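Task 17 of the worksheet. Students: predict the tertiary structure of the chain below and write it out as structure tokens. Keep your answer in the requested format; marks are given for formatting as well as content.
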Amino acid sequence: MSFLGIDVGTTGCKAVAFDEDGRILASAYREYPLHFPKPGWIELDSNRVMKSVRETVREAAAKTRKNPVRALAVSAQGEAVTPVGKDGKYLHNAIVTFDARTAPLVDWWDRRVPRRRIYQISGMPLHGMYTASKILWWKRERPDVFRRAGRFLCYEDLLFQELGLEPAIDASLASRTMFYDVDRGTWSRELLKIAGVEEGRLARVLPSGTVVGEVGERAAREFGLPRGAAAVTGGHDQPCGALGAGVVEDRVGMYATGTVECITPAFEKRVVHPKLLENNIACYPHVVQGLFVALTFNFTGGSLLRWFRDTFAGEEKALARKSGKDVYDLIVSQAAKDPTSLFVLPHFTATGTPHFDTNSRGVVAGLRLSTTRGEVIRALLEGVTYEMALNARILEECGARIDSFRAIGGGAKSPFWMQLKADLLGKPVSALKVPEAACLGAAILAASATGRFSSPREAALRIAKVDRTYEPDPKRAAVYRERFDLYRQVYPTMKGILNRM
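Model answer:
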């Protein structure tokens, strides 16, 4: 038998089938486009997303005939939400995390409830990105959509609906709505009442790793799955990735290198530290029962390299098509070998933590006529890593010390990128044998729900194996320590100008 982990991301989805020992049996991927209907607005066509999910699941499942899928679970991007009519049709594109239209609603919340109270209830520092504000935007700006919507569903619960099951959402993804009461383990009546949203218009909340139902005949036909396969609650993509990376203990942090870059450590107790709130760092349930995670992130993340690919790397894209090589490998191979004298402020979308500034902008500072293409490429990778180093420093000041990192996602496959991160962070960074940790984490939850493992934690400690550890180079690490102090001054110095721009 096999277990299927489905990762529904911001720019693509992946389905990966694993055997009982965590070995990959099959995988499939589809990319889908973001839509930008107005400046600052960013959406996904959920019909296209679900079509892509069906295609990836069918492709992966077709390759596992000898080891048919016993159970599946979903690792889903947070915050993105789709209004669904009572007939099951989607009424509007999903508004994704870093869409800026909901930024003015922060003032709306501020006038009605103290930020500290929101943080105490939901574990979320107030921001316009959360699902709550996206639903509120429809209520205020598109009342026709709000009125006709029978449900507002995130991508985990939306997929259960597509499978013909009653929509369900796990606690980690529910937390990302800003409507979930972490301590009570239920939707927050207080926050729902303030927003004027009925609880019945949200999916039911279940613990991660709970069987929601079985795949019926229609869904089996559409998704290419065995009839009777168990559909299991998964989680928010970052806690799922942490589980798949074996981050189920203190002092180890997951470092996700994808469309968004994230650092996610685990805690045995919920942390409500004033400095976490001050720096906009959420603390909410892990997909492992009894544990919690903190989430720091940069919205631009790996999209910065994608931007470079699409804007400046036409030659590399053509060569990749001809040779079959990965276009990012071709780009990164040109990067300068040593630390640069450039600073890239990676605020090409919005800032993420710790600033939560939707009006900031990206910056490339320190250019000279002698600057090379290779220095610019390396500086893009450095800029995102400097921003994450800033977040790691804040976590440490709150008592969440991270002694080593486990890297997941596309960037974890690049030795150059991993070494750069180890040098700049000054800590060991390990790449895993299975870099697709979000899918693995979801598959572990699916397998545990069907009794294959005694617990997700036990499974992760056994299955999540390190492939290679990158130790910091002392000389480069010393350069980065010195330059990091300068980097910390770039945003505060330029904030006023960037906001006016």
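Marker's comment: The chain has a mean pLDDT of 95. Residues 180 and 187 are 4 Å apart (CA to CA).
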